[in-house]
What we know:
By secondary structure, the first copy, chain A, is α+β, with helices and mostly antiparallel strands. Helices cover 46% and strands 19% of the residues of chain A. Chain A has helices spanning 2-19, 44-47, 54-66, 84-92, 104-109, 114-122, 137-148, and strands at 27-32, 35-41, 74-80, 97-102, 131-134. The first copy, chain A, has a 4-stranded mixed sheet with strand order 2-1-3-4. The longest helix of chain A is centred in the N-terminal third of the chain and has 18 residues, at 2-19. The radius of gyration of chain A is 18 Å and the shape is globular. The two termini of chain A are 34 Å apart. Strand 5 of chain A pairs parallel with strand 4 (97-102) of chain B.
Amino acid sequence: MRNLRFMREAIRLSMRKMQQGKGGPFGAVVVCNGKVVGRGWNKVTSANDPTAHAEIVAIREACRKLNTFRLDRCVLYTSCEPCPMCLAAIYWARIPKVYYANTRRDAARIGFDDAFLYREVARPAARRKLAMRQCLRAEALAAFRLWESNPNKIPY
Amino acid sequence: MRNLRFMREAIRLSMRKMQQGKGGPFGAVVVCNGKVVGRGWNKVTSANDPTAHAEIVAIREACRKLNTFRLDRCVLYTSCEPCPMCLAAIYWARIPKVYYANTRRDAARIGFDDAFLYREVARPAARRKLAMRQCLRAEALAAFRLWESNPNKIPY
Lengths: 156, 156
C-alpha cells in the first residue's frame, strides 16, 4: 500500500535525523501526485529554530519546490500527530489530508508539550499560562481597513 | 510608554509591508532587554510560504540573532492576536508575554481564517474538516523509544 511506504519514509526520517543529533524524533513528507515533494525533520535544537518542526519544514520545502503557497493537491505523512502549530500550518497550506502515526499523548509521554499546547490553545486568553494583553486596537485596525480596500491584494 | 512604541512598530510593519505587496496586513516584533531583536511581517504570498506569518518570521529572526531556540526573556508585540499556528510557536519559543492589537474576529472579518482555525484545532480529529488518519503507530513508537534512551538528546 502506497500510504504505508510514505509513512515509513517519514518514520525513517524521524529516526535517522534524531540519531544524527538534528532534534526531536519527528519526520514528515509531503506527497503530490504520488511523489514526495517535501521532506522534513525536527531541527529545533540544531537550527536554533523553535518553529522547525518536521511538518513545517516539509511544507516549506514542498512550497519552494512547487512554487506555490497552496498545497491543496498534496497529502502529508507525519510520524506523529501534528502539534497545534503544525496542525494550523496544514490548514493554512490547504493540505486536505494527513496521515499520522504516534499520537499527541505518545509525544507528551516522552517529554514534548503537544497535549498541553492543545489545552492552552483552546482556552480563552485570560486563562492561559501565557500572559496576553491587548493594546492599540484602533491603530492596528487602520491596516485592516487598508487591506480591505486594496485592489491589488492576493487573498489566501 | 515603551510597550506602545514597540506595538506601533509592529503596526507600522503591518501597513508598510502590506502596501509593498509582501502579504497580509500583519506585523510583529520580538523585544529583549528593551531592544528589538526580531522583526516580522506576513510573507505568505510573496515568499510562497504559508507558515511565514509575522510572528513566525519575527521569532525565527530573533532566534537567529540571539543564537538560541529559547526566547524566555523576550516579549512579542503583534499587530493582531496570533492564530493557533503562531500561538503554539510562541509557546514552543518559551516567550512568556505577548501584546496584541487586532483580534481573531477582526482578522476573520477581513477574510482570514483565524477564528475558524481556533475552532478546528479544539475539535477531536474525527470532527475536523481536515481528514486525519492514523497508521503504523507501532513502527513510529520505536523512534520515541530511541529518543527516551538517547543519552545525547537536547530536550526542549
